[in-house]
Amino acid sequence: MEFSLLGPISVTSGSEELSLGPAKRRSVLALLLLQPNTTVPLEQLIDSLWEDEPPEHARTVVQGHVSRLRATLAAGGAEAYGIELATHGSAYLLRLPEELIDAHRFGELVALARPEAAPADAVPLLREALGLWRGPALTGTVTSPPFAAAAHALEERRLSAVEALARAYGVLGEQEQAAALLYSAAVNHPLREGLIAALMRALFRTGRQSDALEWYHRTRRLLSEELGVDPGERLRAAYEEILRAEATDRGRKAADPARGAKDASTEGRAFHVKPDGTAPSPEGGSTGAAGGTATPAGAETGRERAGAAPRLLPRPPARFLGREYQLQALTEALADRTTGESPLAVVAGPAGVGKTACAVQWAHLHAGAFPDGQLFADLRGFGEGDEAAPAEILRDFLLALGTRPERVPGSAQAASALFRSLVAERRLLVVLDNARSSAQVRPLLPGGPHCATVVTSRSRLDGLVATDCAWPVGLQALGHEEGAALLGAMLGSVRVAEDPAAARELVDLCDGLPLALRAAAAQLTARPRWRLARLASALRDERRRLALLSAEDTGIAAALRMSVARLSADDARLLRALANSPDGHLNASAAAALAGSDQERTQDGLERLAEMHLVDEEATDVYTISALTQLFARDEGGDRERGRESGDGTEPGGQGGRPGGTPR
Questions:
Q1: Can you give the pTM of this predicted structure?
Q2: CATH classification of 567-642, choosing from 3.30.450.20, 3.30.450.70, 3.40.640.10, 1.10.10.10?
Q3: What is the pLDDT of residues 165-205, one digit of tens each?
Q4: Domain ranges in the chain?
Q5: According to the model, what pLDDT value does residue 340 have?
Q6: β-strands 286-287, 91-95 pairing
Q7: Residue 315: alpha-carbon gap to chain centroid
Q8: What confidence category does residue 364 fall into, taking pLDDT thresholds of 50, 70 and 90?
Q9: Chain-centre distance for alpha carbon 447
Q10: 614 vs 252: CA distance, rounded Å
């Protein structure tokens, strides 16, 4: 007879699974199995089975479940296995050999494994232990805090075993195995920093640096948005180790061309990052974080300038289509060397239009023109947490360029000066994503004539155009043809070709925004039997449209919420008023009437909304607001009214704006 806690609660006798009955009866058994050979008071069972006030007959209910469990176990031959469910006054005792419980066997196997000392033996032990899991622990029990806590404790033990198995794989040099194992766990536990840190190191050792860094930035955003905290020491340490190790390895190859050529022949071999930040070569020797033997400070700086070539770009965007005009505009702006200045372009447009994708696509297409490296940073200008401080980004850049941590200046001004000095003679590309303001960007701009910078923002960043001669590159919504092509790339051309009229309608309902179209494609991918017309019909319901155009941690509502959160209270009220426009087309006079404000003040507000791409100025004093923005503003207005009725004085926009619920 075997008892299972690591998945659905079950009991098997021979090859037969015993029928355990309803959730409360399974929960009684689970609680007794969690404390085998120990008396469990009746009151503890009652408290665990009922989250709220238990009924008057709770004792009778529990006694009935125990009686039926006793009969079920007896019918399965419990006595032959030395199993007895006994009553001790007002408590119960499940007496049995503990090795019959899968959670106990799991613990014994994990305890025997020594992933660092004996990795070859640890791997089969840990794989057998993890193989005992058949799903989330304690599945089928009642949803009360005691069972939630017990399931969480078991899940923590499972994750610890996953991390131990990954360490064993790592010691054996099987980095791909370690990365695959950790990836699966990290997807389901995106806020477990130790797990993410281990995954980052494993990915880096397999040569997937951009994936490793992308996991760091994704987790940092989630920590900020979900918990309001910054990355902890373990996650931050992994990030800095990767930046330093990459810079050190490239610096070593540049300083010794013959060695660099030799390393190129072993590029597929694992590159191990030690806890202290040193990086052994594939042959087994090691170099220090700044390149090895001690040298004078000036010589070290020279090597930093000459050697490090970081490649920090995210992965190329999947299924990127079109935007030929904007890509060509970026090429013309950033390839201009006639002025002797460092060229700068600003990719601006509304939320969800694909600014980051366009900038990253161009950066990958032209990475060869910048052999000294490509830097990337998310400035978090439009997010639920605080925007990135320039000092934070400069520290990351300097570490990536090979600067030792103790030599990174503490002030943003000094760090900016050192950054410009290091890159003055380099051919370097800098991509600054999601900027909030020109002031946030300026300290991060390189000064060398061979460097180029791309900035993306929902704001036009007119300040950069005025003071730094930035070249503006605007992104607009996709037309019918481009939008249908994106759907075809996501869903398959055959499925889209079956109903071209519905595809065109979907583009309209998504306002031609790539983010919305991708979310719509995700809905259809999850429902392979749906035709495009069925989703179009669902999206016509304005009450459901924003919800349907969301996919897990991304969506149009979340993106718009972050833009609105940066508005002043007056501008947020104006946007809500514009949501009542019948056709989304209006001038300052009509907008003032809707807002109940004077025309001059309304004109100023409209210009600020246009700068943030929440409205579009089609011609002089002719403004349009998209359907999705109108729907979102109406929902926000409804939330505000409900907040007033409930006594909550907060409202979207301004200092009192609610942070928003859906993560970016």
A1: 0.60
A2: 1.10.10.10
A3: 999 999 999 999 999 899 888 988 888 999 999 999 999 99
A4: 1-172, 173-249, 324-474, 480-557, 567-642
A5: 74
A6: unpaired
A7: 14
A8: very high
A9: 32
A10: 49
Q: Which residues contact 55 (CB under 8 A, 6 or more apart)?
A: 61
- 10-13/2-4 β-pairing: antiparallel
Task: Find out whether 383 and 434 touch, Cβ atoms under 8 Å.
Answer: yes
Same CATH fold, 567-642 and 324-474? no
Count other C-beta atoms under 10 Å from residue 297's C-beta.
Answer: 8
Residue 118 CB burial class (10 angstroms; 0-12, 13-18, ≥19):
middle
Burial 185-217 (b: 16+ CB within 10 A, else e): bbeebbebbebbbbbbbbbbbbebbbbbbbbbb
- Helix (H) or strand (E) holding 483, with range, is helix 480-491
Residue identified by tokens 């833009």 is: 563
The helix/strand/coil state of 579 is coil
Domain covering 173-249, topology:
1.25.40
CA 360 to chain centre: 17
> In whole angstroms, how far apart are CA 300 and each of 361, 404, 423, 590?
34, 10, 15, 65
Class of domain 1-172: mainly alpha
CB atoms within 10 A of CB 643: 15
State the Cα–Cα distance between residues 123 and 131, nearest whole angstrom. Answer: 12
Rounded CA separation 47/58 (Å):
10
pLDDT per position as a tens digit, 460-500:
999 999 999 999 999 999 999 999 999 999 999 889 998 99
φ/ψ of 460, rounded to 5, equals -70, -20
Q: Which phi and psi (to 5°) does residue 570 adopt?
A: -65, -45
The length of the chain is 664
| Residue 300: its H or E element | helix 297-307
Helical ranges in 312-411 per DSSP H: 324-334, 355-365, 390-400
Helix (H, G, I), strand (E, B) or coil at 344: strand
Tokens in use for 398?
A: 């300097």
From the centroid of its chain, how far is CA 197? 14
Task: With H, G, I as helix, E, B as strand and everything else as coil, classify residue 242.
Answer: helix
How far is the CA of 162 from the CAs of 128, 152, 159, 272, in angstroms?
A: 12, 15, 5, 20
Tell me which amino acid residue 525 is.
T
Q: How many CA atoms lie within 13 A of 117 on its CB side?
A: 3
Q: Which of 49-53, 534-538, 610-614 has the lowest mean pLDDT?
A: 49-53
Q: From CA 483, how far away is CA 508, in angstroms rounded?
A: 9
Inter-residue contact 474 to 349 (CB < 8 Å): yes
Specify whether domain 324-474 bears CATH 3.40.50.300.
Answer: yes
Place of tokens 């220090």: 288
> For residue 149, what are the contacts with CB-CB under 8 A and spacing of at least 6?
none
Nearest Cα to Cα of residue 308 among 244, 402, 405? 402
The phi, psi pair for 464, rounded to 5°, reads -65, -35
| Positive or negative torsion for Cα 94, 95, 100, 101 | positive
